[in-house]
Design a protein that fits this description.
alpha/beta, Rossmann fold, Dihydrodipicolinate Reductase, domain 2, 2 domains, 6-stranded mixed β-sheet, 40% helix, 23% strand, globular
Length: 276
């Protein structure tokens, strides 16, 4: 049995991933067997019971010692670095949920550690693995799209590291759809919503978010206008499919530069609207 350790239970993703791996048993030979829940201790009994998790651990280190791979899914990306670092140094593959980190230097450090130790790592938003998002990316390239608009919900004033919490979804989708080599970022904030423009050499991206809007929309502007309402319900499964493939192949599905660029863009959006 391949044992996976879960670090963090406050996020609803703990239940989503637990459902897929332990309850529905979609991945034969893989299960979540240990958990650390210091971020929301009151949720530990329910999580342990619902998903038949063997060990409740007192420290990150105990989870890592008991596991063959680790999932770090605390709500604050600012809390992802240390458990991910300890796991990688122990030779354990890592899934670092969104936001991957809330600090560019920490994203750089994790990428360097993973490469140095030859330990595969992935994470961030699972929205990027949705087939319709992949198809939109291919269509944008094929049709020489001029502008991509990305709309999703996020609260710039969230208690969980502000815009980093859900804004990281938008920033990472921008990097996923348009590339890592943007040249300029400008953003404005209206109460708790954000509007940002991200310029590239051959395309523009517009990010629009508000906590009152629910759902993911992608709009391609060019000779033809394409408007996509993306059903995000299966993003967790597609993310876990990719994670299990990584564990089987020992190969990360995405270059680590993607995560570094995504964290950098999130930070630059925040810096821009804070200086408006």
């Amino acid at each position: 049995m391949f044992n996976i350790g879960l670090i963090g239970v406050e996020s609803k993703h703990a239940a989503f991933f637990g459902e897929l791996i332990n309850k529905r048993r979609l991945y034969e030979g893989y299960r979540i067997s240990s958990v650390w829940g210091g971020d929301a201790a009151e949720k530990i009994p329910e999580i342990q019971k619902n998903f038949e998790i063997d060990y409740v651990c007192e420290t990150y280190q105990e989870v890592i010692d008991r596991s063959d791979a680790v999932m770090v899914i605390q709500r604050r990306g600012s809390e992802h670095f240390m458990p991910a670092k300890i796991a990688i140094e122990a030779g354990k593959p890592v899934f670092a949920d969104k936001p991957f980190t809330s600090n560019r230097a920490e994203a750089d450090a994790l990428a360097d550690l993973a490469m140095k130790n030859n330990v595969p790592m992935m994470g961030g938003t699972t929205l990027k693995f949705l087939p319709q998002v992949m198809q939109t990316k291919q269509m944008a390239a094929k049709e020489n799209t001029d502008t991509i608009m990305i709309r999703y919900y996020a609260d710039a004033n969230s208690l969980y590291d502000g815009f980093n919490f859900y804004g990281s979804h938008l920033a990472e989708l921008c990097i996923w759809l348009c590339g890592e080599g943007y040249s300029e970022v400008k953003a404005v904030k209206n109460d708790n919503g954000v509007l940002a423009s991200v310029l590239y050499a051959e395309i523009k991206a517009v990010i629009n978010t508000s906590p009152e809007f629910y759902g993911l929309e992608l709009i391609l502007l060019g000779k033809t206008v394409r408007h996509f309402h993306i059903d995000e319900a299966e993003c967790y499964k597609h993310g876990m499919d990719s994670f299990i493939r990584m564990l089987k192949s020992n190969t990360p599905p995405i270059d680590y530069s993607h995560y570094i660029a995504s964290v950098r863009l999130t930070s630059e959006i925040i810096k821009s609207f804070e200086n408006q």
